[in-house]
Amino acid sequence: MQEVFQLLFTALQISAVYILFSLGLTLIFGVLKVVNFAHGQLFTFGALVLSLTMGALAPSLGHGWAAYLVAGLAGLAACLAVGLVIYQFGFKRLERDMTGSFILSAGLVLLFEGLMLEVFGGAVRPVPALLEGNVQMLGLMVSRQRLVLLVFAVLLTAAILTLLRYTRFGKALRAVAIDYEAAMLQGIAYRRIALYGFLMACALAATAGMLIAPVAAVTPTLGDAYLVKGFIAVVVGGMGSIVGAVAGSLLIALLESFVGFYFDPSIANLAIFVIVMVVLLVKPKGFFGND
Amino acid sequence: MRIMFHSSVALKTASVAAMLIAANLCAAETIKLGLSVPLSGAAANWGKGSDWLCAKAAQEIKAQGGIKVQGQTHQFECVSYDNQYNAAEGTKVAQALVMRDGVQFVVGSIGTAPVRALQSLAERKNVLLFTVAWGASIKGPKFPFTFSSMNTPLEISEPMISFIKKQHPEIKTVAMLNPNDATGQEAEKVTKAAWEKNGAKVLVSDLYERGTSEFQPIAARLNAVKPDLVDLGAVPPADVGLIFKELKSLGWNGVKVVEAGTGADGLLATGKDAVEGTYLGAAIPANSMTPHQKELDEGMRKATGEGVNAVQIGAYDAVWAIKAAMEKAQSIDPVAVAKTMPTVKFKSFYGETGFGGKDIYGSDQQMLLPVIITRLTGSTLQEVGRVER
């Protein structure tokens, strides 16, 4: 039983980053009706800027909360700036164009990966843990850093859900996602909402990347694996659905954790792809997707 | 008018002839050396480092007067392509190197799957191929143009495991993990046999996909069998750090081994203090480097951000081996060079060496290099054992 609890907790920890990642993907799909395959590059960029800034700040601020805060803000600002540029010069012109946006985002993936490799190099960039050591919780051994990540991800997800459900901006964003023409007829500034939605997704990608950085191999390819998992989570949960993104991420993490433990890590990956195929056959719009 | 016409034709003919002669002279002086290596993705540093060391060796050879064959002096030029560590890209790179660029000597090729793709073309087209790929299936008398410039599991595993077993006689059980590709699958067989031969029981031996981002479930599975030792065979350094870090957070604290461990930087960047005491089988410890090795190590740090490692050194040694074989054969024909290769002695990164391996592979195509066993202490690698071959 202890083993099952440990695996459940592992799944929860893994899903935290998947949720943040897939929320961004689903937000972009919701407001622009496009899939941004370069989302993983923003996730990576956030982590790389964090590692670079942490290194630069280490002599003056050390590796404490202050250094993390400054480096985190730097990573966030850098990703938002990049997001603004790619929205204004790219996605703004290709909204609701799946083919065009696919070509654009695939090109951006290659461009960003090449640029990041040149600028940051291929070596793994170390990011110190905010909290070192492990903690015993309900008989389970948990790394403190993972716990910070989990708590932060849960708080952030809750904040986003609240924002989308209860604020004027959130309601406008959901209205645009459901029917953008009807939303515009109601006086909602579609362009502005689309831009804010895109930037919010970029911020989520950057935050997820920066949160996972201390427990991951920070290289220009960090986001590749997360993009695949995040995309699967969104497809399984239903493109554009916030609840679907959360549910899809949890399912992927549970499969990864339990199948990986009881069978084999390779079989866990295989199981994830089998599940996607089954879901697409039975419910082509995903669990929470709609027309 | 008629004379002028003839003069013009003569001038044109002379200039074309001069250009052809010049082109021919250039071709005679510069020999292209190809590399099929990962220049993007998680293993990009291995590729970038191989490219840098190939150019460095070519530069050193040029400074020493070039390659002297039948009164002519030749120079080397390195051409690298990104094989992205997979067979599909490896096939494209093979076509580009061999068919388009006309490369006849490949000094660096990384990854068993892309190397297999290159080898199938290289062997047919008489292209001499050096590789650091770990697969034993790409070596042997069936592949007379293929040579290995790095120790592989068949060279490393047995002496390293036997050494570790002597250091830790209490080890009774082992858990193993390797990447799920040709490299990992072939390494797994050899390493598993070596542990069993040395009296340890392998409790679990798993394969995982390269590019995996979350190692908690993998670590939980390894930890569940409570092994005395975890052997991560051909797992790349950054992944090794992450796995040992997750194992530490689960409370496991046994002996750690990585046969393909090429350096401390990657391990420490992700594993931090969790990789303390790890045994590595393919690393070069800085404390026992010669001045020349140190110079290369510093250059590599500037070029890639990490120290020099055995995977990258393969390209450097291959360049010097080809030079030696060309000069001994007095030919730049790859058939003659390949035939001479097993008999040459040359200056490698590690010192003077040659080729062997007939007892294992059936032909002498394995560069004879020392197996250096290192152990991570703090943030530095200490040499704890060396097996000369």
Write the layout of secondary structure elements.
The complex is a heterodimer of chains A (291) and B (389).
Chain A: H1 2-32, H2 39-61, H3 65-89, H4 98-120, E1 134-137, E2 140-143, H5 144-166, H6 168-178, H7 180-185, H8 190-212, H9 222-237, H10 242-262, H11 265-282
Antiparallel strand pairs in A: 1-2
Chain B: H1 2-29, E1 30-37, H2 44-63, E2 67-69, E3 72-82, H3 87-100, E4 105-109, H4 112-124, E5 128-131, E6 146-148, H5 153-167, E7 173-179, H6 182-197, E8 201-208, H7 216-224, E9 229-231, H8 237-249, E10 255-258, H9 264-271, E11 279-280, H10 291-304, H11 310-329, H12 334-340, E12 346-348, E13 351-353, E14 355-356, H13 358-361, E15 366-367, E16 371-377, E17 380-387
Concise synopsis of the structure shown:
The complex is a heterodimer of chains A (291) and B (389). With 291 residues, chain A is an all-alpha fold.
Written account of the structure:
The complex is a heterodimer of chains A (291) and B (389). Chain A has helices spanning 2-32, 39-61, 65-89, 98-120, 144-166, 168-178, 180-185, 190-212, 222-237, 242-262, 265-282; strands at residues 134-137, 140-143. With 291 residues, chain A is mainly α. Chain A has a single domain, classed as ABC transporter involved in vitamin B12 uptake, BtuC (Orthogonal Bundle). Chain A has a two-stranded antiparallel ribbon with strand order 1-2. The longest helix of chain A has 31 residues, at 2-32. Chain B is of the alpha/beta class and 389 residues long. Chain B folds into 2 domains: 30-151 and 289-369, Rossmann fold, CATH 3.40.50.2300; 154-281, Response regulator (Rossmann fold, 3-Layer(aba) Sandwich), CATH 3.40.50.2300. Chain B has 13 helices and 17 strands. Chain B starts with a helix and ends with a strand. The model of chain B is unreliable at 1-5 and 23-27 (pLDDT under 50). Chain A binds chain B through residues 3, 6-7, 10, 13-14, 113-114, 117, 121-126, 128-129, 134, 141-143, 146, 215-222, 224-226, 229, 256-258, 260-261, 264-266, 268-269, and chain B through 40-42, 44-45, 48, 180, 206-209, 211-214, 216-218, 220-221, 224, 237-239, 241-242, 245-246, 248-251, 265-266, 268-270, 272, 304-306.
